[in-house]
Hints:
By secondary structure, the chain is mainly alpha-helical.
Amino acid sequence: MQVLQELYVTTxxxxxxxxxxxxxxxxxxxxxxxxxxxxxxxxxxxAWSIEERFGLSFWDALIxxxxxxxxxxxxxxxDLQHESEIDxxxxxxxxxxxxx
Length: 100
């Protein structure tokens, strides 16, 4: 859910030209079909643990915790070290390598 929130804010407020609120909301609604992980107490505790063990920012740790909760094998992000591994989760920068 965090990434969908960031997508909405970025596409409506940061990009020039950006999307209208209606268009961005439609995109986010479409992506809800992927059943994004909601932030709850267990995910928060997991994120805090990852933050401390790996020295990540809280927001990055929350994304890692959500990906692990969803049983993902790969996390696509440009914000973490390309080709690193965090608790069995492989990190790839989608702009540096083709998606496996």
